[in-house]
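USER:
Working in pairs, take the chain set out below, taking as long as you need, and write a paragraph about the fold.
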Amino acid sequence: MAGSAWIWALKGAGWFLVASTFIPFIRSDAGFIRTFDFPRLQVAVASVPILILLLIFARDRTGLALFAALLACFAYQAYRIFPFTPLHAPQAVAATAATCRRDAEVSLLVANVLQDNTDHQSLLRLVDRHDPDLLLVLETDARWRDALISLRARYPSVIEQPQPNTYGLLFYAKLPLENPQVRFLLQDDVPSIRTVVVLPSGERFTLFGVHPRPPHPGHSSAPRDAELVMVAREVRDLDGAAVVAGDLNDVAWSRTTTLFQKISGLLDPRIGRGLYPTFNAKWPLLRWPLDHIFFSDDFLLGRLERLPYIGSDHFPILISLCRTAVAPRVQDAPEATASDMEAGREAIEAVK
């Protein structure tokens, strides 16, 4: 009896993983559905021991049927994760000393600090160590603004929108900014920023800093999806280079982020390099790439690095880029089809 119960538990776990693979195929913005976009790596890894145990201990008809279904699910999950491994060709090409002028370089550090986190010094030490040209800090309230006031001596250009609802943001820049804006694209308590950044070379690019609300059971992903599509459209309509950075509350392999990339035409430096999971910093077995920096093909990639723990549930992420005329000739930007543009229109219509 005990052995039979163990086998049923094993099969139950296997069918749960099968269901976890199929649920994201449902075209719904329900938070419960969209949450299953996240744990593709965890589902794939968890499938391996169950597949082995099924083959050894459950070789009856239902066990073999489950084995076949779960093996197919494992293959599919691996296929979705594969682009975010070093085995895949990089989407963004790495810069070299020969292709990059120093006055065309820019570094950006993005940190979701967790509003209730009181370890302000860890972030300040990280900034001291890496000295980024641009710093985007998310989940910042008035207490965080005051704790980081010393950064104003290093960064002459500052955009501040502290809020008590975990959606405040602070942006610091060593470089000149033109037309800096704090915007509320869809929800009057969820800000984002848009600004033109002027490089030492005199070249410009438009930077978007975003932090849409996440989907979770009971909360729709529609506002997040629509905001990302709106930003993607703005990027598409720009006559110039662009960078989009922030906590997108979406994984790199989801349908929404893929759609965002196609409509915007921006590159993902994770492709061909690794997952660089930034959330949850406190749960080693449940981590996903939620914090992103996308950029147009006007840039080559200098470096991409996930930084150490700073007391938050997110790891910071650091990137350096190089603006060069060579870049568009050596890398291919994603392109949207007519159906992609229609899907984007539907995503925005869903919140009107």
Summary: The first strand starts at residue 105 and ends at 112.
